[in-house]
Amino acid sequence: MRGGSQMRRQSDRQRGAVLVISLVILLILTIIGVSALRTSSLDARIVANLAEDRTAFQVSETGIELQIQKVSEDGIGDFENAYVATSKTYSPTVDTGDLNMADTSVAIEIKSLGLGGYARGSSIPRFRTSRFSIHSTAERVGSKARAVHSRGLDILIPGT
After folding, report:
1. In a domain, 2, yes or no
2. Contacts for 152 with CB less than 8 Å, ≥ 6 apart
3. d(CA 76, CA 7)
4. 71 pairs with which residues across the strands?
5. Which ranges carry the Type 4 fimbrial biogenesis protein PilX N-terminal domain (predicted)?
6. pLDDT at 91
């Protein structure tokens, strides 16, 4: 009988220890879960920002490509306007209807850099190049994503 009362006293001393240990383990698991949740939400924001930057990059490049395509379809058009502009800068309007990017604005600036030398590789010295630089700036509405691209372009023109 003596052993039974001794066991009862030991169990009385240990009463509540399992509860305290369980609560400590639960607290540790909760802290781990909250930090994992914060990490995943940060990752989601990083991915969203990368997508915004990539879209701005693509729209900026597409704005330049649309201007170059316009030259091949309509003649030098906007580039001629840039060449005769007194400020040597011309900003055409860009039709971005094909881009399907309602939340992105793009601005194109064409600058005339003057006449170049004779056309490279040409055996006819009657043609020269007119040099231009095209700057395209795309901005995503509602975010800080912005992309600026520049490209040079030589257009063959009759020389003197």
Report:
1. no
2. 113, 131, 132, 133, 134
3. 100
4. none
5. 15-65
6. 45
In a domain, 42, yes or no: yes
Give the phi and the psi of residue 58 in degrees, each rounded to 5.
Answer: -65, -40
Tokens read off for 51: 């997508």
Partners of residue 89 on adjacent β-strands: 111
Q: Which whole number is the average pLDDT over 117-133?
A: 71
In a domain, 1, yes or no: no
Domain hosting 58: range is: 16-158
Count the domains in the chain.
1
Q: Are strands 89-90 and 104-118 parallel, antiparallel or unpaired?
A: antiparallel
For range 78-92, the mean pLDDT: 49
What is the pLDDT at residue 42? 83
Q: Is the pLDDT of residue 13 over 70?
A: no
The alpha carbon of residue 152 and the mean position of all alpha carbons in its chain are separated, in whole angstroms, by 22
The residue count for the chain: 160
Residue 7 lies in a domain: no
Residue 120 DSSP one-character state: T
